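User: I need a structural model of Methylglutaconyl-CoA hydratase from Nocardiopsis terrae for a docking pre-check later this week. Nothing fancy, just the predicted structure tokens so I can convert them on my end. Input:
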Amino acid sequence: MTQHPTSPNPSDDAPLVRSSVDRAIATITLDSPHNRNALSARLRTELARALSDAMADEDVRGVVLTGSGPVFCAGADLKEIGAALQGAPVEPAPELPEIFEQIMGAPKPVIAVLNGAARAGGIGLVAAADIALAPKSATFAFTEVRIGVVPAIISVPVSARMHSRQLSRYFLTGELFDASAAAKAGLVTQAVPDREMDHAVDAVLQGLRGSAPSALSRTKELLGELAGGAQAAPDRRTEAFTRMGELSAEFFAGQDAAEGRAAFFEKRPPRWAR
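Assistant: Understood. Predicted structure tokens for Methylglutaconyl-CoA hydratase:
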């Protein structure tokens, strides 16, 4: 995928999400490489709008979700969260459950095309997508436990994808794993040699472009009905997201989370590291 040029300090009015449409496929690009495409309030707002626009466009058959720079998405914007907990104003924006539900409940297939690493909430975007292609150089980690919080909200889409043994391991340890391990665990559809990513993406998009829009939409709905993850069942997602949102908020406001953020920014081990 062609990447947008990066800039270390984007202007306040520069979009953080870019969209284009080519041959019935909308490409939505997270374009905030200065903070590794972190899920800030403004990025979430622009992403939600881009997803809505793509779903409302009758010419769009499917959506590619990708990123600019070396990282697909680093997860939550920890600086913004820390500031908000100190009383700083944060612009109203869709929360992650709304974004995940937009993708999981969308009437058109969403393809995550990773341009690099994914962490924490960024992995939630990967799991929410219908198909996920990752270059073999990409890495993954559920880093929440290492900064004193719980991977609560993302557990809804992730538990519907990953096999339970690997889910337990990577949730509990926060350790790094590669794209091949992610594919074996069910998190991504395919780990692709980096130089072959364009070919792999084209193969998927050719299939979407050759499919009837109404059949695609109904087939995606059917897949949702067949989902193996109990939390991800359409009639339980709202309840699950509500419960997980409460759990996530509880831990993000706790002392361990404050210590985890401080250790992250000070580039030191948190106090519980041994």
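Before docking, keep this in mind: Confidence is low (pLDDT under 50) at residues 1-8.
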